[in-house]
Amino acid sequence: MSNLIAIVFKDEETAEAARTKVLEMQKNYLIELADAVVAVRRENGHVKLNQMINTTGTGAASGGFWGLLVGVLFMMPLAGAALGAASGALLGALTDVGINDGFMRGIAENVPEGAAVLFLLTGTTTPEKITEDLAGLGGTVLRTSFDRTRENALREALAGHS
Q1: What angle do CA 134, 40, 62 make, to 5 degrees?
Q2: pLDDT digits 0-9 by tens, 54-110
Q3: How far, in Å, CA of 106 to CA of 137, rounded?
Q4: 116-125 and 47-50: which strand pairing?
């Protein structure tokens, strides 16, 4: 079963530090992470999503490779690579993996300017592991799919209480 966690931090740096801790936990096989996104509300009111995976760049690289390959067959490798990269980038930009971008933007629009929201989509995990590693970062839990006891433990840990 997947768990969704949304935590508001005072700034982008703190949210990125929390995401780095969560990614380290994944490297150590303490949690199974499906997506980790930092949404930042800028001073002009716009929301910027710092995705874990850049689908536009990945699509452009993949499209460029396949375009080059097809272009070699038709003796136009540069045109094939350029067309493939452009179409791959377009398809990558239109692709949404993990947590829905519209959902994250909607939540991030309601936080103060300059604040950041860390969205975590985890697979099978022990909530206590997240609670231990994020202790004392000062974030505020907006939403979780945990039960009330585990959610309250996460709130207290973020606030710096044991």
Answers
A1: 95
A2: 556 666 677 777 777 777 777 777 877 777 777 766 666 555 556 788 888 888 888
A3: 24
A4: unpaired
Query: For residue 153, which phi and psi values (nearest 5 degrees)?
Result: -65, -40
Q: What is the pTM of this model?
A: 0.70
The Cβ of residue 151 has, within 10 Å, a number of other Cβ atoms equal to 17
If one counts every other C-beta atom within 10 angstroms of the C-beta of residue 126, the result is: 12
The residue extents of the domains of the chain are 3-53+99-159, 55-94
For 138, the 3-state DSSP assignment is coil
Residues 9 and 149 sit within 8 Å (Cβ to Cβ): no
Q: How far apart are CA 115 and CA 113, in angstroms?
A: 6
Angle between helix axes 77-94 and 55-73 (nearest 10 degrees) is 150
Q: Could you tell me which CATH number the domain at 3-53+99-159 has?
A: 3.30.70
Sign of CA dihedral 105, 107, 113, 116: negative
